[in-house]
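[Automated response] Your request has been received and processed.

Submitted sequence:
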Amino acid sequence: MIPLKIAFDAYPIASPRLSGVGVHALEIASRLCKWEELDCTLLLYDFLKRRGSKEMLQKRIPQTKIVQNNLLPYGIYVELWNKIPRLGLEQVFGTTADVFHFFNFVVPPKVPGKIINTVHDLVYLNFPETMEKRNYRRLNMHLKRSCQDADVVITVSETIKQELIDQMKLPKEKIRVVYNGVDQKRFRPVLERISGLPHDYFLYLGTLEPRKNLLGLLEGYRIAKPKIGDCKLVLGGAKGWEYQTIFEKVKEYGLEEDVVFPGYLPSEDLPKLYSGAKAFLFPSLYEGFGIPPLEAMACGVPVVTSNCSCLPEVTGDAAVLVNPKDSEELAWAMENILTDTALRDTCVTRGLERVKQFTWEQAAEQVFSIYKEG
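Generated structure:
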C-alpha cells in the first residue's frame, strides 16, 4: 500500500510558547506523523532561521521531513497573497502532496492537492474588539476565501460548526467536527505542588486578554473576597493583547496581595498547577472549544465556567455554569465551590468521567478518516 502524502502547515507548532491552536496542531500532527499509512511533511516558515523554529519542530515531532522557507516572515506572505495571487504554496515550498492540512484558519492560494482547513472559532466576527488589529485583518482578508477553497473544513465543536453555517454560509456537508482531547497520562491528579504559590487558591489558566473576561473575574473575586477567607486568585498564562488593563484593575481593587501572576508556565508544570487549586475558574466570553476546563477536570479539580458559547457543550453536567457577565453570580459560584463539599465532590467525580470522552487518539483517527474521504 502506497502511503498517503500529507503536508502539514507547521507554523503554529514551531512557536516556543504554544497557543491553543498550537497545542491542537501538535497533538494531531505528532500522532499522524507516526502512522505507516501516511508519508508526512512539515511545512515551516522560518525567516532567516532566526527563531530556531526547525530545531523546535524536530524536538516536538522527531524523524519527520521538514521543508523550510526562510526568505520572508509568515506574516508578509499572508499580506502578499491578495497582491500576488501567483505566490502560491507550490512556489513558496516547492512541495506537492495528496492532502494539505492547515491548522491556523487561513490557506494560501494555489494549493496543489486536497485542502483541509481547521477553523477553531469565529472570534473575528463575534468579538472583533478583543483581537489585535493585525490578526483581525488577516482573518477578515482570508478566512472566507480559505473556507471556500478548502475541500473540508474541520472545526472543534458543534457550536462553531453552526456558526460557520450561519455566519460564513458554509454548506454543512463541508464541515466536520473533531473535538480536541486531553492527554490523560499527563493531566491527572498529582500531590506535588509548585513552590511559591499560595496554599489555597482559585486558578485561571490561559492567555491574559479581554476575551477571557478576566476583568469580570476580578470583579467577582472582589465581591466574594469577604466570604472566602484567604483563598488567593492565581492568573496563569502569557501576557496577551491589552493585558495591562488586568494589572490596572488589580491595583484599582486593592487586590495586589491576593492576585498572583506566575506568568507563562512550562507544560510539565501544568498538572501540578491544576492539582493544587481549590477550583478552576474559566468565565470566558467566547471559545471555540476550551481545553483548560477539561485539563482541570482530568486533574481532579472542580470547574466553574461560562454558560455560553461552546463551554456547556464541552463540560456537560460536570461544571458549575454561570453567566460570565454577572459578577454577583461569579462571586456566588466561587463561594459555593469552595464551601459546599457535596458540590465539589460531584464536580470532581463527574469531571473525571467527562474528560474520558475527549482523547487526542480519537481526534487523530477522525482526521485520518477525513483525509481518506473522496
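Summary generated for your ticket: The longest helix spans residues 133-149. The CA atoms of residues 77 and 83 lie 10 Å apart.
If you did not submit this request, please reply to this message.
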